[in-house]
Design a protein that fits this description.
The protein has helices at residues 56-63, 86-92, 110-115, 124-128, 134-146, 162-175, 192-209, 220-226, 259-266, and strands at 15-24, 33-41, 45-49, 71-76, 95-98, 180-184, 212-217, 229-234, 237-245, 248-251. The protein is α/β, with parallel strands linked by helices. The radius of gyration is 19 Å and the shape is globular. The structure holds adenosine-5'-diphosphate (ADP) and magnesium ion (MG). Residues 26, 32, 50, 52-58 line the site of adenosine-5'-diphosphate (ADP).
Length: 267
């Protein structure tokens, strides 16, 4: 048998997302992100924090292929993110993206919004008329029970509270059966109890399906509580990458900063 006919087995690498020296911009003058190098391991919770305008949302858009680097490379499970690339389209179906604005259809019910997550695997004709097989409807109900909204499945999205809307967005993203979840400030502006409930929901989903979650947060303390790694972005640059070990904050970026230096840098 010749070597060329031997199928190459699909290898599951430890790293699912890799960015090397990535720069990107919206206009000719300013870079929204500069020199971003990071890698995210499968199954972890990776947080991105930073002030408003620092480039957090842009970073998520690079991962899901909505934007492209002007320099540097990005690989998401071996693929270069690009929504016009057929191969990446398959990968995209496995990326649950929850934008800062959530993207719910306000006149559709909670159940219908959740079912939207199944659209990529529904045939075109049925998806045009929003006709879903019963197994998909069962799955949507199961996820709504999980996020605590089964009793509101017939409510319209616009009739929900902020916390409930986020739960629907999570159910819709999980309906995709994602490998990666990108969530942009999903717990910002929520009260402490609700933010923790939502973070627990995501942690639970991660345990069940080995989901890799990349979450943008406003609050670094909340990020440190839930994430394996926290990248701090300032003016488009990744200035820190930290995590908690026991009661110590560890510098994963340079490996030699003390906790005090880290805290001073974040201020
Ligand atoms: N659509 C856009 N067109 C032009 N500039 C943009 C656009 N979106 C974001 N920016 C700029 O890019 C920078 C990073 O924005 P963004 O990633 O949204 O930051 P963050 O999510 O951290 O608030 C900001 O300076 C912002 O003004
Ligand atoms: Mg943002």
């Amino acid at each position: 048998m010749s070597l060329t006919s031997t199928p190459i087995p699909k290898i599951q690498t430890k790293t699912i997302i890799q960015m090397n020296n990535v720069w990107t911009s919206y206009d000719a003058k300013n870079f929204a992100l500069k020199e971003i190098t990071l890698s995210v391991d499968r199954g972890v919770n990776y947080a991105i924090v930073g002030q408003s305008g620092s480039g957090k949302s842009t970073l998520l858009k690079l991962i899901n292929g909505m934007m492209h680097p002007s320099r540097g490379t990005i690989r998401v499970d071996y693929q270069t993110p690009d929504i016009t690339n057929k191969k990446f389209k398959k990968m995209m179906a496995k990326i649950g993206y929850i934008p800062q604005t959530l993207g719910l259809v306000k006149n559709l019910t909670v159940l219908e919004n959740t079912l939207m997550g199944a659209l990529p695997r529904i045939n075109t004709l049925n998806s045009l008329f929003n006709i879903f097989p019963s197994n998909e409807i069962d799955e949507a109900h199961r996820l709504l029970t999980m996020v605590g909204l089964e009793n509101k499945s017939k409510r319209k999205a616009y009739q929900l509270s902020g916390g409930e809307k986020r739960r629907v967005a999570i159910a819709r993203a999980l309906m995709q059966k994602p490998e990666i979840l990108l969530a942009d400030e999903i717990v910002s502006e929520l009260d402490r109890v609700t933010s923790h409930e939502i973070m627990e929901l995501i942690a639970e989903a991660q345990r069940r399906i080995n989901l890799t979650a990349i979450m943008v947060h406003h609050d670094i303390n909340l990020a440190l509580e839930y994430a394996n790694r926290v990248a701090v972005i300032k003016n488009g640059e990744k200035i820190l990458e930290i995590g908690v070990d026991g009661d110590q904050i560890i510098d994963f970026q340079t490996g030699n900063m003390t906790q005090q230096e880290i805290l001073e840098m974040y201020e």
